[in-house]
Specification:
The chain is an alpha+beta fold and 86 residues long. It has a single domain (3-79), classed as Alpha-Beta Plaits (2-Layer Sandwich). It has helices at 15-28, 57-68, and strands at residues 3-12, 33-41, 46-56, 73-79. A 4-stranded antiparallel sheet has the order 2-3-1-4, with helices on one face. InterPro entries: Acetolactate_synth/TF_NikR_C, ACT-like_dom_sf, FeFe-hyd_TM1266. It comes from Halarsenatibacter silvermanii. This is Putative iron-only hydrogenase system regulator.
Length: 86
Amino acid sequence: MSRRIGAVAIVIDDRQKAASQVNEILSKYGNIIIGRMGVPRREDNMGVISLLVEGDTDEIGAITGELGSLEKVNVKSALTSKEVED
């Protein structure tokens, strides 16, 4: 299957409730994450995480699907149309 590079934006509306679940999922898919930046907004109990990912569409869809199924978590992704080589 072809591999692509993409970006995933994650907004956590309730850090206390969802942060541990989000980190568990990110660890599970650590093999496709090539970069991560997280910014906590402690005063609002929110957090924003941006990911750079490289994987096939099934892998990227799986991580975004799992994250998006969490309560108080919003996820958006964008993938390049160009295939990359291993």
